[in-house]
Amino acid sequence: xxxxxxxxxxxxxSADADAIIARIDAAGIVGMGGGRYPSARKLREARAADxxxxxxxxxxxxPGASADTTLLGQHFxxxxxxxxxxGRCLNGAGLAxxxxxxxxxxxxxxxxxxxxxxxxxxxxxxxxxxxxxxxGQPSDYGVxxxxxxxxxxxxxxxxLGRALRRRIVSVGETDQWLAxxxxxxxxxxxxxxxxxxNGPLTGRPARANAVVEASTFSVGPARAPADPCIRCGWCxxxxxxxxxxxxxxxxxxxxxxxxxxxxxxxxxxxxAVCPSGIDLVNEFRALKEQTRHRAALRERAxxxxxxxxxxxxxxxxxxxxxQAQRAARLSSNHSW
Amino acid sequence: MTAALALGGLGLVxxxxxxxxxxxxxxxxxxSEGAVVDAVDALLPQSQCAQCGYPGCRPYAQAVSAGxxxxxxxxxxxxxxxxxxxxxGREREPAAVAQTPELVARIIERQCVGxxxxxxxxxxxxxAGAPNYLHAVLAEHCTGCELCVPxxxxxxxxxxxxxxx
Lengths: 336, 165
Ligand code: SF4
Ligand code: SF4
Ligand code: SF4
Ligand code: SF4
Ligand code: SF4
Prior knowledge:
Chain A is of the alpha/beta class. Chain A is built from nine helices and nine strands. Chain A folds into three domains: 17-164, 3-Layer(aba) Sandwich (Rossmann fold), CATH 3.40.50.11540; 170-221; 225-331, Fumarate Reductase Iron-sulfur Protein, Chain B, domain 2 (Orthogonal Bundle), CATH 1.10.1060. In chain B, 25% of the residues are buried. Chain B folds into two domains: 2-97, no CATH class; 101-161, Alpha-Beta Plaits (2-Layer Sandwich). In chain B, helix 1 (2-43) crosses helix 2. Chain B is mainly alpha-helical. The longest helix of chain B is centred in the N-terminal third of the chain and has 42 residues, at 2-43. Chain A binds chain B through residues 255, 292-294, 296-297, 300-305, 307-308, 310-311, and chain B through 41, 44-48, 56-57, 79, 82, 102, 123-126, 141, 143, 164-165.
């Protein structure tokens, strides 16, 4: 991997935030923990929001997705350097690197023992020592979260002048450096059947012709077919947003709408406890989409009704006016 | 004589009361029927496309309230049928309607001759233009009802998939 040539001139300590962010933009870096959000945009927004705390996310909370942990083992200093570059862009924000309990890494690593803290919102909320407000973004409470692979890519782009071309991916039981754009079908694991990207809980079934993307941190086998919901109720206490996943699951099955689903942060805690193996997070993603779509259709219909009524009124008014004019003409004819 | 007058007067009063009662009852009935039509109308997609065989959504809402089949609205699709069934308690009725994609019209500028015929038929005033000038569909108002398509003499209106903004 060190054979990669430089794409840009390396930036040194004197580079200001604008130059660093422009470089991160040019290197094509996006949220590599699955989020895919352009890192340059995130940094600009964090600057505008006067974020005072940046967290490296090395929690690796998807079962079987050890790529981030392996990356920390291989390139801990580079990840920390990436975090420091982020700190320079955020006017010397406080820095921390969140890692799972038992990682035994030196500062700024902090072991976080909260379940599902790999979820960006939950992690930010943990550091802001408050619960995540519904649908709130980490920047709303002064925290910016960057995945460790993103931080490594930032270090490479800024300090070594490298564009983002490859990343570490958990493939089955191993962690490998793969070129971005590698077709998943070319991986040996593809021979075993359908694949799933980014973990059994919050990941998604791999699409046809899927490739390794910048945000692909794990490739594994598809989930086993789900059993019907047995109404065990385990999902309810598992949810950090106090949702009853069972009810959302019912709404999904009934092809209905559910406004409450927008409080779901897609953390996968319910999926983790569901004994029927239901892919709840993906159901809720579809339910969000469906609910949004139906609301948009209603809005469209309401607007169309108003416009149609207005048109009918106008046509009636015009007809009345024509009639009145004709009547006026007729009576003036008579007076001649 | 007085008795006849009194009886006649009483009859008159009773007739008057009866007619008032009938009028009140009738208006009540109209009111509640109107409420059902409103509720049905609120669930219809408001394309005013007449594919249901009625000259618009409101007329179809009235027909449905009077017992017409629930599954005649193609743009509404199965979701609208399901909602109508639930609203009216007519779940057991057949619902033979397929999901159709939501559409929006678009005028191919290079071909438009500015005849203004499309403007006349658009039920929601979603087309802008004037005689002899290029016409355009205001996508945010268009419901994709397709009524303008046959109206265009040069066949330059196409329908494309609608996506919520
Ligand atoms: S994924 Fe499940 S546990 Fe997490 S917020 Fe959504 S419903 Fe709750
Ligand atoms: S945990 Fe799974 S099976 Fe149990 S109630 Fe929730 S959705 Fe149903
Ligand atoms: S088919 Fe549906 S959208 Fe079209 S006029 Fe009839 S009720 Fe309205
Ligand atoms: S522009 Fe055409 S398709 Fe769109 S609402 Fe008007 S008549 Fe219907
Ligand atoms: S009917 Fe066709 S040709 Fe005529 S104004 Fe409309 S789009 Fe243009």
